[in-house]
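Lab notebook, bench 4. Continuing the backlog of folding jobs that were queued last week. Each job is logged with the same field layout so the records can be merged later without manual cleanup. Today's entry covers HTH-type transcriptional regulator, a 184-residue chain. Filled in by technician R.K.

JOB TYPE: sequence-to-structure
TARGET: HTH-type transcriptional regulator
LENGTH: 184
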Amino acid sequence: MNLSPKIESFVMHCGEMGSRWGFNRTIGQIMGLLVMSEKPLSANEIGETLSISRGNVSMGIKELQSWRLVSTQHIAGDRKDYYLPAGSIWELANRVFEERSKREVDPTLSLLRDALLDDPANAQEAYAHQRMDEIHQLLETLTKWTAELQSISPEKLTTLMKLGSGVVRILDLKDRIVKTGSAD
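JOB STATUS: finished
OUTPUT FIELD FOLLOWS
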């Protein structure tokens, strides 16, 4: 499969971004290629297009399947497995958020909950306890907020994001009204 320079640039960029998303470069490239492909691709096509070994493709596909980002499709009369993204761009983004939360935020929340159960033994621990409680509250708030965002339809979420700074201006206006009693 030959990629246009534009698509190749995007796929290579996905590889570079992979480590920031929680995967390695090869896995990022595989995901980028699958997202850009109009049709499902076999492991051989993926390997040839990206110049990577069949083993790397296989490991990459398994990792992407563990993230629930890739699904397998079978074509009648063909024994090969073909791979494609497991949903829309919004669904894929939600799965990445969910998986990152499971792998990164949930263990931190668990550790903080355990640490906060014990009373501090001295002033140093009391200060650390207070800071851990602040971190815990922040992560709990973010976790609840992202869960609510994930339940919103892509259309409503797009509208919400487009409101952006408008929402902040409304909140600032509300604060001014509360402080002064008027909207001047």
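OBSERVATION: The domain at 5-85 is CATH 1.10.10.10 (Arc Repressor Mutant, subunit A).
SIGNED: R.K.
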